[in-house]
Design goal:
The complex is a heterodimer. In chain A, the strands form two sheets. In chain A, strands 2, 4, 5, 6, 9, 10 and 11 form a seven-stranded mixed sheet that branches. In chain A, strands 1-3-8-7 form a four-stranded antiparallel sheet, with no helix packed on it. Chain A contains no helices and eleven strands. By secondary structure, chain A is an all-beta fold. Classes of the chains: A mainly beta, B mainly beta. At the A-B interface, strand 4, strand 5 and strand 10 of A face strand 5 of B.
C-alpha cells in the first residue's frame, strides 16, 4: 500500500492567517492527490483533486500544489469556518490511502 | 444534484455481519464513469477506504479487510451495498458511501451512519 504522511499533525492559527500543510507519499502518485476537509458529524468534503483542481463552490483561498511524492495545501486568509481536520488521499492506486490528518484549530 | 444516503442497523453484535446500503438519487448510477466507494472513520483514528464497486459489479477491496468484506450493486434500484462479516469492536466507526469518479477524488458523500459493534 502507498503510505501517506501528513505534517504537522496539528496546527494552531488565527483568522486571517495563511497556513500550509503538507502530505508526502511513500512512492510517486503522479499528481493523484486529493484534499478533504472534515468536521465531526459531517461527511468529509472534497476541496481539491488531482493536486490543484479546486472543486466547484470551494473558496479560492484554498489552493494545492506539488508533484510526484510531495504535496501542499495552502489556505490564504483563514476564515472561522476553516477550522477543521484536513486529510490528503491518493487515488493513484488501490487501495486508496489517506494521511492521518492535520487538525487546524484556533490559536 | 446527485445525493447518497446510507442505511442500515446502528448496532451489530460481535461476530455477526454488518450490512449497509447506499441509495443514490438525482442520477442513474450507470451514467458517467464512476466507481462507488465505502469509507469509514473509527473513533480516534483516520479515514480508511474499504473498497469500491463499478456498475458492472467489478470490485476492489482493501486488502486489510478482503477476507471479510463483500460489495454488491443493484443498478435497477440505484443502490450498492456493503457486507462486513465477523465484526469486532474494531469495526465500530462512522461509515460513508461516496461517488468515485476514476482518479478524481471522492466527490460526493452520503451523510454517514454510525455503526457500533457491541453485545
Amino acid at each position: 500500500d502507498i503510505q501517506m504522511i501528513q505534517s504537522p499533525s496539528s496546527l494552531s492559527a488565527s483568522v486571517g492567517d495563511r497556513v500550509t500543510m503538507t502530505c508526502r507519499a511513500s512512492q510517486t502518485i503522479r499528481g493523484y492527490l486529493n484534499w478533504y476537509q472534515y468536521k465531526p458529524g459531517k461527511a468529509p468534503k472534497l476541496l481539491i483533486s488531482v493536486t490543484s483542481s479546486l472543486q466547484s463552490g470551494v473558496p479560492s483561498r484554498f489552493s494545492g500544489s506539488g508533484s510526484e511524492t510531495d504535496f501542499t495545501l495552502t489556505i490564504s486568509g483563514l476564515q472561522p469556518e476553516d477550522f477543521a481536520t484536513y486529510y490528503c488521499q491518493q487515488s493513484y492506486r488501490t487501495p486508496y490511502t489517506f494521511g492521518q490528518g492535520t487538525i487546524l484549530d484556533i490559536k | 444534484q446527485v445525493q447518497l444516503q446510507e442505511s442500515g442497523p446502528g448496532l451489530v453484535k460481535p461476530s455477526q455481519t454488518l450490512s449497509l446500503t447506499c441509495t443514490v438519487s438525482g442520477a442513474s448510477m450507470k451514467s458517467g464513469n464512476s466507481y462507488w466507494s465505502w469509507i469509514r472513520l473509527p473513533a480516534g483514528e483516520g479515514l480508511q477506504w474499504l473498497g469500491r464497486i463499478y456498475t458492472t459489479g467489478a470490485t476492489s477491496y482493501n486488502p486489510s479487510l478482503e477476507s471479510r468484506v463483500a460489495f454488491s450493486i443493484d443498478t435497477s434500484q440505484n443502490q450498492f451495498s456493503l457486507e462486513l462479516k465477523s465484526v469486532t469492536a474494531a469495526d465500530t466507526a462512522v461509515y460513508w458511501c461516496a461517488r468515485d469518479p476514476v482518479g478524481d477524488g471522492l466527490d460526493i458523500w452520503g451523510p454517514g451512519t454510525m455503526v457500533t459493534v457491541s453485545s
